[in-house]
Amino acid sequence: MKWLVRLLNSVLLFLTTDLILLCSWFSVSLWVGIPGGVCLAVLFVVINIVPRYRAAKNRWAVMNDGRELVYLFLITLAANIAFQIWFGIEVFSKQTGHAAFFVNLVFCIVLEAALAVNGTLRIIILSKQLGMVKKVLFLFLWWLPIFNLVLLYQMVHTAKQEYELETEKEELNSVRKENEICRTKYPVLMVHGVFFRDLKYWNYWGRIPKELKRNGAEVYYGNQQSAASVEECAVELKTRIEEVMAETGAEKVNIIAHSKGGLDSRYTISLLGMDHYVASLTTINTPHRGCAFADYLLHKIPKSVCNMIARKYNSALKKLGDPNPDFMAAVQDLTEESCRAFNERVLDAENVYYQSTASKMSRWNSAPFPQWMSYLLVKHFDKDNDGLVGVQAAKWGSKFTLLETKGRRGISHGDMIDLNRENIKGFDVREFYVGVVHGLKEMGF
Fold it and tell me: What is the spatial distance between Cα 197 and Cα 33, in angstroms, rounded to a whole number?
């Protein structure tokens, strides 16, 4: 059905762009051809663009309409080039019909350009999966032959994948909405990692919380400082847990913690008396056994350089809201040496369920910046890793899950919190967290 609609639209557009030539061929006046072409153009807009624009309820539906317009542009462009060449040869061999040919050529170029610009701009503006590099390249280099077609193909292909995934997810959530598969007994407290904060206008966890809420989850955030010692962040987490319980009336919380947030949470549970108020702890890519590369860097980089970097970071983090940032304390608590001592002192609580997850990159360039920069260094010390944390270092608790993809892409430290809001082939980060929370619900948490 889709191909039939596309074929009919292509025929309509072809008639619109070449009506003047057709009128000339059948000896009909230009004063009929020009108004006729304009009327057909208006008809195309009324039939296609207006109803679809009104019916589109979300961003990706409008983006997909842009993709369809690009398809129509490419189909009719190919037909028009062939027709213009053939008719041009006829015109210049017979020495007649020059006016109709040139008027039609201008009319055709204007309409095809309008179609191409409309379609590509919709994709560029509305696609979240099309990287900024490709968007900028196309905007500045669209006039380069071959190169622009390659980029256009990549844009259309990316838009198609994004539309299909988002539509499928929308349908899936619609089907399971009534089941509330993420409606756990206790609210979910999501605890961020080091050097980030839970900001109001930029969510640390990307699209994940919204997906959990769609499926019934009650989500809260840790709100601890972005750079401080584990002990200091743990005190802040204790206060936050008490606030969530007071707000919700819940007896406990389920903690999902990323990176250093897992260490902060373990300290809170074991040494600050929160074991009676935490039902479960799920750690995501947490360096439970430390980062060996951190020990190496701290020993190799001159102390003066470390202090200079710390001052700059602390200054920046203070502006972002940290009351008392301590860059060096945060980094030192992530070393292998510190984590070894931490694990001897911070023992798991018997009445709390612990589970962990780790992901791995396939190669140094299998994930976006900045993880590819540190992957090789971490691999030297910890072998398989996510760009920051080794797989073995992330293992903790009763259940351990290793996430990886087939092929070159891999899953980085940032991918596990949807840092780049990227759809990764073979791994749906939003669905992964839905599965985690659903699992907690099934266990009675």
Answer: 63
